[in-house]
Structure formats: C-alpha cells, structure tokens
Amino acid sequence: MAKKSFKLEDVEFNCTKNKIEPEKQKALLSDLQAMLDEESADKEIKNPKEYVILLSDPEGILSKETLDRLVGWPIQIYEGEDPTKVTEKLSLAAAQYNDTRSGKKTPATSIGDTIQGVTRKFLTENEIWPKAKEPVRVLSTDNKLLDLSQDEEQNVSNED
Q1: pLDDT tens for residues 46-80?
Q2: Number of domains present in the structure of the chain
Q3: Domain presence at residue 148
Q4: Alpha helix (H) ranges present in 46-148?
C-alpha cells in the first residue's frame, strides 16, 4: 500500500465538515498523532552510514601511524581509464569552476575543496564521479579472512 502524507489540520477540517462528534474527532486525531510520532521515531533510529577505504597490505608496509593520518575520497572513473589521471581531471574541473562567478567568490584551492565545493557538472564533464564529499578514513588489511568457525563452536558450547 502506498504511503500518503496528510496534515492533521486537514483531517480535523474534514471531521468538522462531515459533522463527526467532537469526542470521536478528538480520539481520532490523538490516534493519528500517535501514529505520526511513532513513524518519526522509527526514522530517527536508523544509523547513519559512512564510507571507508580498505587497502590490501599483506606485507604490512603501511605503519599504523601512517594509516592514522591517511584519508581519501572514493572516486569513480570509467573502466579501463588511467587512474593516475584522476588528480589531473580534478585540477581541470577546479580550473573550470574557478573561472565561473561562483568560483571567483570561493575558489577551489585543493583536492578536498574541489570534491566538496565544485559543482557536479564540472566533475562529470571531466568524467570523474566522487562518491563522498567528505574525506573517508583509510584502513588496511592483510587480505585474509578471519577464521570465525572456532569462535562459533565456542559460542555454541557456551550456550549448552
């Protein structure tokens, strides 16, 4: 069933128009208000999501101190294109944006400024699509899955 929005004032007006008793009208409006409050509470419960970039580092080349300082932006490009051209394309998009009236007021002076502030039009014209405007944390992995089967066996035996 499709959800439709309504205003309680409209419901109250229609109740009065159709000559519904004030007691029933009040009960109906309080029930509808409770439903609306419940629905808005459900919406607030959802956890916000964020991106992370997971780097494969099987040899452990990256130190924890280096990783703590690294942030990045997930960028989408056409398959088969040279990924080393991403910085060049971002610079070109920033230069085009900086030539506009908005760009002259608040110019993009860094990669972060470009991703966060440059109009999407300039980025897509240069065939580059950032997937997050805010920088994301970088994590590393040895590229091996954790063996959780032993943990599951312990959990099952602890439940008995």
Answers
A1: 667 788 888 898 998 988 888 889 899 999 999 99
A2: 2
A3: no
A4: 64-69, 86-98, 101-105, 111-117, 120-125
